[in-house]
Amino acid sequence: MKPSITILGIDPGSQITGVGVIHSQGNDLKHLYSESLRLPKGDLAIRLAAIYKALQSVIAQTRPDVVAIEKVFIAKNPQSALVLGHARGAAMLAAVNNQLPVIEYSATEIKKTVVGRGRADKAQVQHMMRILLSLRVAPDVDAADALAAAVCHAHHQQINQVVRA
Question: Do residues 7 and 27 make contact, with C-beta atoms less than 8 angstroms apart?
């Protein structure tokens, strides 16, 4: 029997944070949960608390084994990169407070793994998540990115198991 794993993928954002949970067993991928968390307007601290609280709830409901999160990209605007870093920090804190390992993947690595091209556009990622997870409709952009992070980790885990064997 092939090992199974439940993976929480996170696409952090200060206005919308994508969340996606999949179950992986060998080549079989199953969608468990996905959502685009639309954060309240205003104070950054309130938005960070909302990310943390929502992820705590998702973790309690889905009980993932690991968290896959998108790395910060180099932004043209340093302030945007800093705020994004705070959102990632809130998400990572929710994971580590639940004793979950956190694995980071670059956006390019995620896209290359799930689409085959590191510069794939958002619509291509949405389409591949719909296909790979047998969804009737494509998830929202941010949820699709989070699911893609989880699928990326599932594929990397599978490759690592083959290499170890």
Answer: no
